[in-house]
Amino acid sequence: MSKTFRPWKIDEPLLLPAMVQDFVAADHLARFVLSLVRGEIDLAAITASYDSDRGQPPFDPVMMTALLLYSYCCGIYASRRIAKACRERVDFMSIVGFDAPDFRTVSEFRRRHLKALGALFRQILQLCETAGLVKLGHVALDGTKIKANASKHKAMSYERMEKRAAELEAEVAKWLAVAEATDAAEDKLYGADKTGEEMPDWVADKKRRAERIRKAKAELEAEAKASAEAKLKAAAEAQRQREAEGRKKSGRQAAPPSTTPDPKAQKNFTDPQSRIMKSKDGFVQAYNAQIAVDSQAQIIVAQDVTQSAVDSGQLVPMTDAIETNLGRKPEQLSADAGYCSEANLEALENRGIDGYVATGRARDAVDDKGSDDDDVPGAPNPVSGSKPQAEPKPAAAPTRVEAMRAKLKAGGHASPYRLRKQLPEPVFGQIKQARGFRQFLLRGFDNIRAEWAIVCTAHNLLKLAQGWTLSAARLQAT
To answer: How many Cβ atoms are within 10 Å of 208's Cβ, its own excluded?
Structure first.
């Protein structure tokens, strides 16, 4: 016998859960993020801007903050995809309820509070420390190139700028000269209602492009001048320090830095603050994203973005950022050869941090065999176990780089340096591969720094959720 279905009447109430959070399990990440944002995070910097009673009531800023953080945890970054998920996915509905924000609302909220959202990194990090996920016993540094929201084909070299700007200006001038000489013909061509002096769109575009090229050229010149002045100031300071210590600089006198840009120096017109950088995928228009990862639970304890393709200038700022974020220094710190320099190793010594910084290729850093030119006078021979014949009186004490090379070899594969690959590289893999963040959405250096801070906050939030879940499971087991 066939079963008869009673039609649903329009005046009958829908059977809905008692709470919209019941759409997901009690231990679901969406619930964790929402409860954490409501009860553990200070959002005064965001909520204070909504004190006015005028206008239409906005979406709850607490809910919007939780929505953005949860979206980044799920690897969803575009505002349109976030808005779509709010309409189609029950985990997103458990946060926004049945009042899904429009994609413009999501985008505007992120744009308006970008700096405050990036500042949440420190609060989440301190919660991770409270939960016992941060020990600062060993911290590893690394950087990765992340593509900017700009094409490298929209960049132009300084050498090409002058030539191309002149070409565009010549085209515009030529057209204007022809237009002036043929006013009568143009009156007949354009009609009585036009003056004949209107410039076609292509002329205006080329004129504007020439102006942008001139502006980019001036920016490169200003950057080259500022860089030269900084180098001269640093050289003068080093000379004063040598004179105070009674030392003389050996070798040939270096040529003064040039105040004119390198002919191959480039400026991008889409995101002028991004730079051409070499990555595993070749040369890309990108930024250099930096992280410092703690060994306890792969928590990011410091993060930043730089416009420099090299990492050497980031060791000291990142190390100091760890102390700024958590109020104490790490006991040990490891980094690859990109961070190695006499100045950086000296900075670690001055801060009382036990450093493990590669002095060459990673596979050679702890190689027991080594090469003859890597041997340090007085160090044991790793093959025979005997000491080589030491020179009677060495000409000079080993440099810090030479001492670091000997330190890594002495530790071998049991050296704490081995943690360097086990910490930041998996974190980059989780961010770029698992959660698909391979390109910044925003443009401009300040916006990029805040966006990277949100990405790192989401990573720590996932680790915090996992740590709290495991702690609760252990408590139930006991």
So the answer is: 11
